[in-house]
Amino acid sequence: MSQAPARIQSVCVYCGSRDGGRRIYREAAAGLGCALAAAGLRLVYGGARIGLMGAMADAARAAGGEVLGVIPQSMLDRELAHDGLTDLRIVHSMHERKRLMIDNADAFIALPGGFGTLEELFEVLTWHQLGHHDKPCGLLDIDGFYAPLRDCLAHMCAEGFVAAAQVERVRVAAEPTTLLARLGAAEADPTTTDEAIRP
């Protein structure tokens, strides 16, 4: 079994409810699910059975991992909920969903995704900026998917809208086990900047 990052027991993953335009994204989602299970880390995610979300949850469960899904009643009613999870929590609103996911995670990862993925990612980063949590965050940058976002964050920092220390907290890797290790290092020492986004 892989060594779990220090003090991190649960990882919240934000990702697409679609598969994306290339097979590599679904493969990466499954790879992350397997890596989390191998490291003995609980996956916390949005509870759906479709897209990258479903591929990741399926892989984590197949590898013996624990998976907590959080889904609003409205999505459950449309039969989008995954029925094979360790724990499925049904909530009333998207706000309640996001809060429960944040509260149940020790670290955060964004896989490729769309508007919802970015909205959740930036909420977590903003909450850290405001002092509501001190949990590490990372991007699983599959085939350069997040390169434009990394450039944008660096630009915002260079233009004086975001502090360098905030930008540098975002860990980046193209491979799941590497990213988990970097999140563990960030948890142990938030001042480290190895493979972080830099302005």
Helix and strand pattern: EHEHEHEHEHEHHEH
Based on secondary structure, the structural category is alpha/beta
As for the CATH topology, it is: Rossmann fold
What would you say the CATH architecture is? 3-Layer(aba) Sandwich
**Shape category:** globular
CATH classification, class level: Alpha Beta
- Secondary structure tally, helices: 8
Task: Give the count of structural domains.
Answer: 1
Q: Total number of β-strand segments? A: 7
- Percentage of residues in strands: 15-25%
Portion in helices: 40-55%
Outline the biggest β-sheet: 7 strands, parallel
Query: Separation of termini?
Result: 36 Å
Report the uncertain regions. 1-6
Query: What Rg is obtained from the alpha carbons, in whole angstroms?
Result: 16 Å
Taking all residues together, what is the mean pLDDT? 90
The strand order across the widest sheet is 4-3-2-1-5-6-7
Pfam families: Lysine_decarbox (PF03641)
Keywords: Cytokinin biosynthesis, Hydrolase
Family: Belongs to the LOG family.
GO molecular function: AMP nucleosidase activity
What can you tell me about this protein's structure?
The protein has 199 residues and is α/β, with parallel strands linked by helices. A 7-stranded parallel beta sheet has the order 4-3-2-1-5-6-7. It has helices spanning 23-38, 51-62, 73-77, 94-103, 115-129, 147-158, 164-168, 176-188; strands at 10-14, 42-45, 67-72, 87-91, 107-110, 137-140, 170-173. The N and C termini lie far apart (36 Å). The longest helix has 16 residues, at 23-38. It has one domain: 3-Layer(aba) Sandwich (Rossmann fold), CATH 3.40.50.450. 44% of the residues lie in helices and 16% in strands. Helix 1 (23-38) runs parallel beside helix 2 (51-62).
